[in-house]
Amino acid sequence: QKEVEQDPGPLSVPEGAIVSLNCTYSNSAFQYFMWYRQYSRKGPELLMYTYSSGNKEDGRFTAQVDKSSKYISLFIRDSQPSDSATYLCAPAGGTSYGKLTFGQGTILTVHP
Amino acid sequence: DTAVSQTPKYLVTQMGNDKSIKCEQNLGHDTMYWYKQDSKKFLKIMFSYNNKELIINETVPNRFSPKSPDKAHLNLHINSLELGDSAVYFCASSQDQVAGPYEQYFGPGTRLTVT
What we know:
The structure holds two protein chains of two kinds. Helices cover 0% and strands 53% of the residues of chain A. Chain A contains no helices and ten strands. Chain A starts with a strand and ends with a strand. Chain B is built from no helices and eleven strands. Chain B has strands at residues 4-7, 10-13, 19-25, 31-37, 43-50, 53-57, 64-70, 73-78, 87-94, 105-106, 110-114. In chain B, strand 4 and strand 5 (43-50) form a beta hairpin. Chain B starts with a strand and ends with a strand. Chain A binds chain B through residues 8, 31-32, 34, 36, 38, 41-46, 49, 51, 86, 88, 90, 92-93, 96-102, 104-105, 107, and chain B through 4, 31, 33, 40-45, 48, 50, 55-56, 90, 92, 94, 97-98, 100-109.
């Protein structure tokens, strides 16, 4: 079993839809839960992160963590064509020194 | 002003050759990383340096050797290239990462193709 599992999709939605992206993880020592966005042929860029369990909102994006079930979610409201990218979850923490363990990434396409 | 830069952007070479990829960051960060992203987009850490000291060394063939001449630079040298080394290699940097959060800033990537 991989340490971080993420459905690779691809996921195709119409503009304006609510998108739900999800990851599961196995390492209970993870404390920070990062979301990166990667456009085609570009490097990943940090979108947002949460610490421990709970929700965090940033504009149209909401990150949610449930540590009891080891489940991470990213919701995108009112999705736009510019949101089309690969979304990577990356939990971190515990004894790993700065090590991010990435999920496989979910390819999202938002069509007009 | 590019925060994390890599050269070259594309690298096409033959099996058995030796090649290097260079990375520079102008963010004043203490920690730098090398990641490998395979054809399925799976991004996996290879190495991490903090203040020129190797702190993460994942299970990577010893044909791969990182070198950090100073805090702002981390280079990756690959000996005896193999077909399986074809991938996109990303450099990243961050502040000192003892306690988090783990905000890492990535370069644009070097697309390596071994023929």
